[in-house]
Design brief:
Blueprint lengths: L1 H31 L6 H23 L4 H26 L9 H23 L14 E4 L8 E4 H23 L1 H11 L1 H6 L4 H27 L13 H7 L4 H22 L7 H16 L14
Antiparallel strand pairs: 1-2
Helix pairs in contact: 1-5, 1-6, 1-8, 1-10, 2-3, 2-4, 2-8, 3-8, 5-6, 5-8, 6-8, 9-10, 9-11, 10-11
Length: about 300
């Protein structure tokens, strides 16, 4: 039972990280109706900005406080992601209003490659570290119940808590704020939203900026665990099964989907890996996503689209 709980907790914590990355996809899709292939590049650029400015600022201004450096680096990186959102709206999205979804999809691919190149140009291509003070030591819980207790990673626990808080804030934002309702209206129909006075350009800037901040938090967590390198842009691919499972239009779906994928990966590797020669954790999520695409393509919480003729 102790081993099962360790695997379960590990899966839940990984699932919250997947959900955090998946949220970026959901946010953009809810506002524009397009799948944002640039989300991985946004995570990379945000993490690079955080890592480099946390190093540069003490050198430039001569202070030694890492806490101050991290706070300032976070603020600068959040502002940078907002600027990226403004530029994307001004030079790309503004010219693609009411275009086919395929056109917008290809635009996000172009944005992705541009951000990858810009990140390398501005911040370099080395592997960088992010140290925001997250605890690295493991801890034992339930020692009075199970012999030896249950081992958990405090860094994963902290990351899962941060992810959960951000997810709750975003869910409340979409459900109970005027801007959140406007975002949903824009996703349903661009022309109808404009006809009732919803400023499409401003809405797109807001949602891309929010997705950028989400990417920043995800980049900090992933960078703290594994370092910041250009393979980080592929981390978004790990979240694809999450949004397929939970539904592209559902914030709660991203949460549930992330938890299911995280737990499923860990448990399948722990208990079925030996029968499949290992490595089941790598492909489990994609097989599960394929099953959903075949039998429930809208996901667990996505809206079923019915075209009437």
């Amino acid at each position: 039972m102790g081993y099962f709980l360790e695997t379960l907790f590990g899966g839940l914590m990984s699932g919250m990280l997947y959900a955090l990355v998946g949220l970026g996809f959901v946010l953009i899709f809810k506002a524009s109706g397009v799948f944002n292939f640039a989300q991985g590049a946004m995570v990379l650029v945000a993490a690079l900005s955080m890592a480099r400015f946390a190093t540069w600022l003490p050198q430039w201004f001569g202070f030694e406080s890492m806490l101050l450096a991290n706070v300032l680096a976070f603020i600068i990186s959040a502002v940078l992601m907002t600027i990226v959102a403004i530029l994307i709206e001004r030079f790309v999205l503004r010219h693609l209003v009411n275009q086919e979804a395929t056109t917008l999809l290809m635009a996000t691919l172009g944005i992705s490659y541009f951000l990858d190149g810009a990140g390398q140009t501005l911040f370099g291509s080395s592997v960088y570290s992010i140290d925001v003070g997250m605890p690295k030591d493991p801890a034992f819980i339930f020692e009075s119940i199970f012999e030896g207790g249950v081992l958990i990673n405090l860094e994963d626990l902290t990351a899962a808590a941060i992810s959960a808080i951000l997810v709750v804030i975003l869910a409340l934002f979409f459900q109970y704020t005027t801007t959140g309702r406007a975002l949903r209206a824009v996703a349903d129909d661009h022309q109808a939203a404009q006809s009732i006075g919803i400023p499409l350009n401003r809405i797109w800037i807001i949602v891309w900026a929010v997705a950028g901040v989400v990417a920043l938090v995800a980049g900090i967590i992933w960078g703290s665990k594994f370092g910041v390198q250009f393979t980080l842009s592929t981390a978004a691919l790990r979240a694809l099964p999450v949004v397929i499972l939970g539904g592209l239009t559902s914030v709660p779906g991203a949460i549930i989907g992330g938890l299911i994928i995280g737990v499923g990966e860990k448990l399948s590797e722990a208990y079925l890996g030996e029968y499949f020669g290992g490595g089941i954790e790598i492909w489990f999520a994609y097989v599960l996503a394929l099953v959903f695409l075949l039998f429930r393509p809208q996901g667990l919480f996505g809206e079923k689209i019915i075209d009437r003729v």
